[in-house]
Design goal:
By secondary structure, this protein is of the alpha/beta class. The protein is 38% helix and 16% strand. The strands form 4 sheets. The protein has a 9-stranded mixed β-sheet with strand order 1-8-15-14-9-13-12-11-10, with helices on both faces. The relative contact order is 0.09.
């Protein structure tokens, strides 16, 4: 079974995202710089859009013009710190260069973690005149525990890869951010390419996030459409049985610059030690004919006689690993590397401009991680016209001892593809249908709040969102969809249930209400309608018939756009396309295995879902089954779910009667 591209998007190559203005700023950087006077900035922008330099521009202005005394930049790991090394900005029109004294670049220094905390403590002392320091999240978290709040006043904190923070009380970085917000006069610039977490916990609490509004959004579609060379992106999956190494030769194209991530050693996808798996992959490429011991690069001859340079980051030996990492940081030509094998590294912040393909073996722990990995191959450079992400995932087999993990991998893979389609493709906007004489406010399809729009669709009966709801629709819809797709209930629903209203009226509104606590029930419904429409229409083409009527394909049927109404939204499964993708890729036997496994594991039931199933779907089910009431042993999955609802409501009634006694 070959690679099945679920997403294939082509871009306009306008060159806008890489062009610079009179200050040497790219499009995204200029957007951020316009907001530099605000004390709290949240920037959502993809890899290679120039977030690091955007932070430099803002930090230098705050030092020179806004009364800020010091700048602290924090990155999740040392290797990402190289993005904040000394940078010449004046030659391109800016008023100052970015300079970090070697002593205060704690990502480049060789000292212990304890010594680095002491340096940060020394740097923040009010009498110290040094202005810029770069460190890791870990150093920042631990060093600031014993530093008084008054030392943090008028300090600018730049937090890179901000999704590492969390609203959870046990997240130390999140606690630090809340302290800076509520107990000091510090300024904060938070940057991330994926403003959501795989554990579905919010990155910030609503009251804290409100202080960063409005956010600065620069999406994947803007970034990639504005490139000069890269014109298309594919996201695909390949299924394997047995050991993944047997499927790799079919997946790996050795003529492409490729980054391969092997599975975690504790994953069921792993079949040997990480060293043996890396060695097997090299044997798939060819035969080692020479080793560059200075840089720890293997020269591997392919069966057709080509010599490829292969790096192995799985290696644990400190000297070899450090030599390779140093080599990777200094790479300045296309010929420096052909294939890189990694395990836990080379994800967020790793810069290999010439990378054309990312192969990830096994599903990673979160959608966030997948977004970061895909970003490794989406940088623009001469000679690269297509970027490709391939996920190798195990095929569920009813004969396996435990198919639950394989089933979950399937659903996460499809969730990831739907998410990436949301963030990497243009999104349609929706408005309520107005009287024919009313002016068409949406006729202008110019970019709105940082999002390129291709079509505006009128929907009959769609209410006009309130200001709060509209702000979420404009700024956070991609993040909301990511949160939705990481929810267990929604991943189960992707399998394609006939009970669409359970998804549209219960699951999605419940997720929105949980994420945005301050919304009214009406506002939750407004946001939910737009989210459902976006998911359902993403990737769908608008076609025109001979009479000029325009149609869009929804829920396996073509709908005339002139007849698109709000009543249709609640009756469609927005994840129907995902089910179709699965159906094309898998045999009926495998789909049956997945369906059974999900229903067997699924026990959650809410009052809203139970009432909906009882009032709407039970009569329909009985009509189709000779007036029979379904039981929990039904072969039909929908029948079992309805039976569960009956039991749930029966227990609620018993509890209600007991409470009245």
């Amino acid at each position: 079974m070959g690679v099945n591209n679920l997403v294939n998007i082509e871009y306009a190559r306008t060159g806008r995202s890489s062009a610079t203005n009179e200050l040497g700023m790219r499009e995204m950087q200029a957007m951020v710089y316009e907001q530099r006077q605000r004390p709290y900035l949240l920037v959502k922008a993809p890899p290679a859009s120039g977030k690091s330099r955007a932070m430099m521009f803002v930090a230098l202005d705050k030092l020179a013009n806004q009364g800020i005394r010091k700048v602290v930049v924090a990155v999740p790991e040392k290797s990402i710190g190289r993005s904040f090394r000394n940078t010449n900005l004046m030659d391109y029109g800016f008023f100052a260069d970015w300079k970090v004294a070697p002593y205060y670049n704690l990502c480049d220094s060789l000292g212990t973690e304890t010594s680095k905390r002491k340096v940060l403590d020394e740097f923040l002392h009010p009498e110290n005149k040094a202005q810029i320091l770069v460190c890791t999240h870990s150093t920042l978290r631990n060093a600031l525990k014993n530093i008084p709040n008054e030392w943090l006043d008028e300090v600018f904190f730049g937090i890179d890869e901000f999704h590492h923070t969390s609203a959870d009380a046990n997240n130390n970085l999140g606690e630090l951010i809340r302290r800076l917000l509520n107990e000091t006069s510090a300024h904060i610039l938070a940057m991330t390419g994926s403003y959501f977490r795989g554990d579905a916990v919010p990155v910030m609490r609503p009251e804290d996030e409100a202080r960063f509004q409005p956010t600065i959004n620069y999406n994947y579609y803007q970034q990639l459409s504005g490139y000069k060379y890269l014109k298309s992106l594919g996201i695909g999956y390949q299924f394997f049985t047995g050991k993944y190494i047997t499927a790799l030769p079919e997946t790996l194209d050795t003529t492409k610059k490729t980054l391969i991530h092997i599975p975690n050693v504790n994953s069921k996808t792993a079949y040997a030690s990480k060293y043996d798996e890396a060695a097997d992959i090299i044997r798939c490429i060819g035969e080692i004919v020479e080793t560059d011991y200075e840089h720890h690069i293997y020269h591997v001859q392919t069966p057709d006689g080509r010599i490829l340079k292969v790096g192995d980051l799985v290696e644990d030996d400190p000297s070899r690993r450090d030599a390779l990492q140093a080599y990777l940081q200094r790479m300045n030509s296309r010929d420096a590397l052909d294939i890189l094998i990694a395990l836990g590294t080379a994800k967020e912040g790793f810069d290999w401009t010439w990378c054309e393909c990312c192969i990830t073996i096994g599903i990673r722990s979160s959608l966030t991680e997948i977004v970061q990995i895909i970003g490794r191959c989406t940088r623009d450079c001469e000679g690269k016209t297509h970027a490709q992400f391939i996920n190798l995932i195990p095929c569920p087999d009813a004969a396996q001892d435990d198919v639950t993990m394989a089933v979950n991998d399937f659903l996460k893979a499809i969730s990831a593809s739907l998410l990436m389609e949301q963030v990497m493709a243009p999104r349609w906007t929706f408005k309520t249908r107005r009287d024919e004489d009313a002016p068409d406010e949406a006729a202008d399809e110019s970019p709105t709040r940082g999002t390129d729009r291709r079509h505006t669709i009128e929907v009959e009966g769609l209410s006009t969102p309130t200001e709060r709801a509209q702000a979420i629709i404009d700024n956070d819809l991609d993040t909301l969809i990511a949160t939705t797709l990481s929810d267990k209930r929604i991943r189960e629903a992707i399998l394609g249930t006939d009970m669409a209203e359970v998804i549209t009226q219960v699951y999605i509104p419940k997720i929105i209400a949980e994420k945005y606590h301050n919304l009214t029930e009406e506002e939750v419904d407004q946001v939910a309608k737009h989210a459902i429409l976006t998911i359902a229409t993403q990737g769908q083409e608008i076609t025109t018939d001979d009479s000029g009527n325009k149609f869009i394909r929804l829920a396996n049927r073509f709908v005339n756009l002139d007849h698109l109404s709000i009543n249709l939204i609640d009756s469609i499964n927005p994840f129907q396309r995902a089910y179709e993708i699965l159906s094309k890729s898998l045999t009926p036997e495998v789909l049956h295995t997945i369906q059974y496994e999900i229903e067997a594991q699924r026990e959650e039931m809410t009052r809203e879902e139970a009432i909906l199933l009882f009032t709407k779907y039970l009569p329909k089910w009985r009509e189709e089954h000779n007036n029979k009431v379904p039981t929990l042993n039904e072969a039909d999955a929908n029948g079992r779910r309805i039976a569960m609802a009956i039991e749930y409501l029966r227990k609620l009634k018993q509890q209600s009667l007991a409470n009245k006694r």
